[in-house]
Automatic annotation (TrEMBL):
PANTHER family named among the record's database cross-references: GOLGI-ASSOCIATED KINASE 1B, GOLGI-ASSOCIATED KINASE 1B-RELATED
Transmembrane segments: 29-49
Keywords from the UniProt entry: Golgi apparatus, Membrane, Transmembrane, Transmembrane helix
Transmembrane helix keyword on record: yes
A GO cellular component annotation in the UniProt record: Golgi apparatus
Similarity comment: family membership: Belongs to the GASK family.
Localization: Endomembrane system; Golgi apparatus
Protein name: Golgi associated kinase 1B
This protein's encoding gene: gask1b
Organism: Dicentrarchus labrax (European seabass)
Main location: membrane
Length: 513
C-alpha cells in the first residue's frame, strides 16, 4: 500500500522528466534559461525587501537615539513646580528634539590660533509673505531712527545719571512674518533637553540665562560715566519676582530684571561664565549671547545679568571696588588676610577680601589671560601694538611695579569678603611662550575643586556640554569646530599651569568659602 502511494505521488514528476528528455535540445535549453531568469528575479526581489527592512530599522534606531546632550526620560519627568518649592535644579526641556555631541577623548592635532576667531557671516534669507507682514515700511523707518538715536546718545553722554529710556516693546523682534514670530517665541535659544541642567549650574543660573536670552525687551537705558565705558541696560518682561533689592535703589536704573548689553567683540564674557561654573568658582555673573535687531546690525552680542548690589551707593558712586596697589596686594598674600575668619592687625596691608579669593582670581585670569585686574600695565608679558596698555602709556609704569594700582577688583556691597569677576576680557590668541605669569605671583594655594577638574581630563567634555546650552553663542563661534579651537587653547594653558604648580610646590586645598 505504501509503495503504490509513493509511486502515485512520483508519477507526475517521472512523466515530466521523461517528456523533458524527449524534447529537442533547443527547447530544453529555452526551458532551463527561463527557469534561471525566474529564480534570479526572485532572488533580487528578496534582497531588495530585506534591504528596505534594514533601512526602516535604522531610521527607527536613529529616531530612538536622536542626537542629544542629555537623554530625556518622560517617565521620570517632574513638574516644574517641584523646582520652585524644593530649590532642586530641575528644569523643563526647552526642545522636543534631542541633539547629541560625540566627545573625542583625545585630539591628535590641536589647532593653533593666531588671531581672534571670527565666524563667517552668512547672509540671512528673509522669508516674507505679503498677507502676513507684521512690520510696515513706516515701522521699519521708526526702528532705524530709534537705533540711530541710541548710538548718538551713547556717544554724547558725559556723566553718570544722564540716561534715556526707550520703549522697545515692539522693536526687539526682527521684521518677519507672523508665523516666524510665533515659531521663535516657542523655541528658546537656551537648549536644555533633559529634566536637569548640568550640575554646575544652579536653578538661579538657569533662570537668569533664560531671561537674558529670551525675555521680551521693554525698555533700553543707556548710562555713561565720564571716562568709564557706557552701559547699555535693557529691562525685560518677566512673570516671576524680579529681585530682593530695595525698590528705591533700583528705580533709577532698573525697575525689574535687567541685563547689560556689551559689544559683539566681547564674546569672552560668555565663555568666561561657563568656564567659571565648570571649575566651581561661581564668581562671574550669568552671561549669554543674544541678537538684537536694533543693535549692531543684528550681530550676536554678550548680555550680562545686571546686579544692583555692585553699586551700593548708586551709579554715581561707581563700583564697590577694592583700592590696592601691587605692593599692598603682595603683602596681603603673605599675611593671609582673614584666613579662618581671623581679623588682621590694624597696621597690616589687608583689604576686606578673603585670602582664598585671590587664588581663585589668579587661576581664572591665567586660563583666560585676563590682565585688566592684576596686570593692567602689561608688565608680565610682551604686549602688542594694539593692546590698550600701550595705547594709554601704562606699560611705562612697569619700572616701579609696587605702586601700580590694581583695577576692576569688585565685590558686592553687602559681601566685601568675596570678589565678583566682571569685565572678563580674555585673550585666546596669546601663545604659550608669552603667557602672563605675573598673574600667579605670590599665590601659594589654589582651589582643590578647580584643579581636580583640570587634572581629570574631562574639561573639554564639560565645556562642550555647558557651551552647547547657548545656541546663539555656539553658532556664532562656528559650531563644534570653532568651540573646539577655543578649548584647545585652554587645554594647552592647563598643561602649563599644572607644570607651574608642580615646579613651585603650590598647595591644592579645599576653598569652600
Amino acid at each position: 500500500m505504501g509503495k503504490s502511494r509513493f509511486h502515485w505521488l512520483c508519477f507526475p514528476f517521472l512523466k515530466l522528466t521523461s517528456s523533458f528528455r524527449r524534447c529537442p535540445l533547443s527547447k530544453r535549453t529555452l526551458i532551463i534559461a527561463s527557469v534561471c531568469v525566474v529564480y534570479l528575479c526572485f532572488v533580487v526581489s528578496q534582497v531588495g525587501y530585506s534591504q528596505q527592512n534594514r533601512d526602516r530599522r535604522t531610521d527607527k534606531d536613529k529616531y530612538r537615539h536622536t542626537r542629544g546632550l542629555y537623554n530625556l526620560d518622560i517617565s521620570d519627568a517632574l513638574p516644574d513646580s517641584v523646582d520652585l518649592q524644593t530649590g532642586a535644579s530641575f528644569v523643563v526641556p526647552t526642545r522636543s528634539n534631542v541633539v547629541y555631541i560625540t566627545l573625542k577623548s583625545k585630539r591628535l592635532k590641536p589647532a593653533n590660533i593666531r588671531g581672534t576667531i571670527r565666524p563667517k557671516l552668512r547672509r540671512k534669507v528673509r522669508r516674507t509673505k505679503s498677507t502676513n507682514l507684521s512690520f510696515t515700511q513706516n515701522k521699519l523707518g521708526t526702528l532705524e531712527r530709534d537705533a540711530g538715536q541710541i548710538k548718538r546718545n551713547i556717544a554724547h553722554k558725559t556723566s553718570w545719571g544722564e540716561s534715556r529710556d526707550v520703549d522697545y516693546k515692539s522693536l526687539d523682534i526682527i521684521p518677519k512674518s507672523h508665523i516666524d514670530a510665533q515659531t521663535d517665541s516657542q523655541i528658546s535659544s537656551i537648549r536644555i533637553y533633559s529634566q536637569k541642567a548640568p550640575p554646575w549650574f544652579s536653578p538661579q543660573d538657569v533662570k537668569a540665562m533664560r531671561f537674558l536670552a529670551d525675555a521680551k525687551v521693554l525698555r533700553i537705558k543707556e548710562v555713561s560715566g565720564g571716562d568709564s565705558p557706557s552701559l547699555l541696560i535693557f529691562e525685560g518682561e518677566t512673570s516671576g519676582s524680579v529681585t530682593n533689592q530695595k525698590p528705591e535703589k533700583l528705580s533709577n536704573v532698573c525697575g525689574g530684571q535687567c541685563g547689560i548689553i556689551s559689544s559683539p567683540v566681547d564674546t569672552t564674557e560668555v565663555f568666561a561664565f561657563h568656564l567659571d561654573r565648570v571649575l566651581g568658582l561661581n564668581r562671574t555673573l550669568p552671561a549669554v549671547s543674544r541678537k538684537f535687531s536694533f543693535l549692531h546690525d543684528g550681530q550676536p552680542c554678550p548680555v550680562v545679568s545686571w546686579d544692583a548690589s555692585l553699586y551700593p551707593e548708586g551709579l554715581a558712586a561707581g563700583w564697590s571696588a577694592v583700592r590696592l596697589t601691587w605692593g599692598q596686594y603682595q603683602r596681603s598674600l603673605k599675611q593671609r588676610c582673614w584666613h579662618k575668619n581671623t581679623s588682621p592687625k590694624p597696621d597690616s596691608s589687608c583689604s576686606t577680601v578673603l585670602h582664598y579669593e585671590w587664588s581663585k582670581l589668579a587661576l581664572f585670569d591665567f586660563l583666560l589671560q585676563i590682565h585688566n585686574r592684576l596686570d593692567q600695565s602689561c608688565c608680565g608679558f610682551r604686549p602688542r601694538k594694539e593692546d590698550v596698555c600701550l595705547g594709554l602709556g601704562h606699560h611705562a609704569d612697569c619700572g616701579d611695579q609696587s605702586h601700580i594700582q590694581l583695577t576692576n577688583i569688585i565685590h558686592r556691597g553687602h559681601d566685601p569678603r568675596h570678589l565678583v569677576f566682571t569685565n572678563n576680557k580674555g585673550f585666546f590668541d596669546r601663545n604659550e611662550d608669552n603667557l602672563d605669569f605675573r598673574l600667579l605671583e605670590g599665590i601659594k594655594e589654589l582651589p582643590e575643586r578647580a584643579v581636580s577638574v583640570l587634572k581629570s581630563r574631562r574639561l573639554r567634555e564639560k565645556l562642550l556640554q555647558s557651551l552647547f546650552l547657548d545656541q546663539t553663542y555656539w553658532e556664532s563661534q562656528g559650531g563644534r569646530q570653532g568651540i573646539d579651537k577655543l578649548i584647545d587653547v585652554i587645554e594647552r594653558r592647563v598643561k602649563v599651569l599644572l607644570t607651574y604648580i608642580n615646579a613651585h610646590g603650590i598647595k591644592v586645598i579645599a576653598m569652600n568659602v
